[in-house]
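#structure-requests
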Amino acid sequence: MRYFLLLAAPALLLGAARPLRRPATPGPTHATAPLVAPGAVLSNATRTALLARASLGRLWQHQASNGTEDVLNGVFGYDGRRLEFVFLSVQADAKSPGRYLVAGKFRCYGDVTPFRGSVEVQQVQRLPAEAVGDDGTGKARAVYCATGSFALQATSSHGLGGRFDGRLGVDFQVGSSGRAALAEYTTNALTRRGGLLFDGEWRDGPDGDPVPAVWKQGMAVAHQVLTRFQIGDRDAHLNPRYARVGWNTYWQNDEWWAEKQVAKR
């Protein structure tokens, strides 16, 4: 997988101290390749009905009551630079089933940038039993993988600016209420072993050089993408090479996406 190979480069996974500079040289634009998960593909009618009742967009939308718990964390570039996303608004497109109009903010290099765009689910598959295990009662769980694409455009020149494009993978199950919940632990390689996966590239303009970017739910990226995030046996602590690229603030309860209130005199 092209993006996987980019993110598995030694500079990211072996910890070479080589921070990535923001690209300035124009480069070609590449089309986004589709993702393919294991399992039987749902028919168009079945997929549409499932998406209509499952409220899939809630799986990546920030819930105010959760504070910092459902911030999506990821990496930008080749040195493990921390990237954070918060989807503040997710609305199903009434004219296009499976398409969601989204807005929110992302933070990288300490800069907060608003964005707007879309996320589109193009296919849903039921994962095979060997990929999901049982539900604790010996019965196989019904777990699905939704795949599609996303396009997120910065709406401010502050910070990175530019645009993120790429592929989406979501492992989920549907509860008795009919609503979807993340299946965070599977053996599905497409989602890096469960949960959400936004896997793509950032460009500062139509002809800009692509920079790999990937993000997942919570801290999953630290264990499913990065290596040796924490070091030490008895007294485990953050690896200094990740502390240098933004991960040292993870344990701070900083709701950086919230609008700052200015006190009136």
